[in-house]
Predict the structure.
Amino acid sequence: MLEYKFLIENLHKSFGEKKVLKGVELKIEKGLSVVILGGSGVGKSVFLKTLIGLLRPDLGKVFVDGVDIFSLKEKELNEFRKKFGMCFQEGALFDSMTVYENIAFPLIRHKELPKEKIKDRVMECLEIVKLKGVEDKFPSELSGGMRRRVGFARAIALKPEILLFDEPTTGLDPVMTSLIAETIKDLMKGDDVTAITITHDLQAASIIADKIAMLFDGKIIFYGKKEEFWESQEPAVVQFRTSNPKGPWTEEEI
């Protein structure tokens, strides 16, 4: 019997007259790395923010571990969010803090741990993302790819059950894209973590994904193993996969 980490039912979200999500349905199995693909402006980040309750849908439900997150009161939802580790574009680091202080921040805020335990966990996280030796540097001293990996290290500090990545490879060259994608894959090892990555990067998706979902015209039009994605003949999938300007996407949606 499949165990679902996420159940998304009939999710709708509009901003004024612009309908972004138009009845999204998706079931994400526990322990998988799922990539949500789609062109710019199709609502991938809106979808991601809805999954953690940062945006409330106009209609529909999001169940995480069987809990309807929008039935929770604000204090309960804030507590529930401890299940999540969120990785934003560029890492969203505190510029005035060192790398060490950035990664230690959630441990100090949410855990009552002695300094030595915090230090051990920070160094462990840096080792996982292959950044030993940068703990005393400030974000401004790091490359874009390094800042993102520090963001990953901070996101896993509390050992969350769910990792969410918002466009983790945007603006990176192909070599750094592969490194970031391999790092995300490494973060999945050993702890039965469920990961959702929002991207339009096929190179990254091919490395990260166990399964791929395709968001198009406000709905999920494909969900399956990544091998099935490459073989799908769904017109919007083919257009996205082949970078063909002629297809179901309108000029506004590309």
Observations:
- The mean pLDDT is 89.
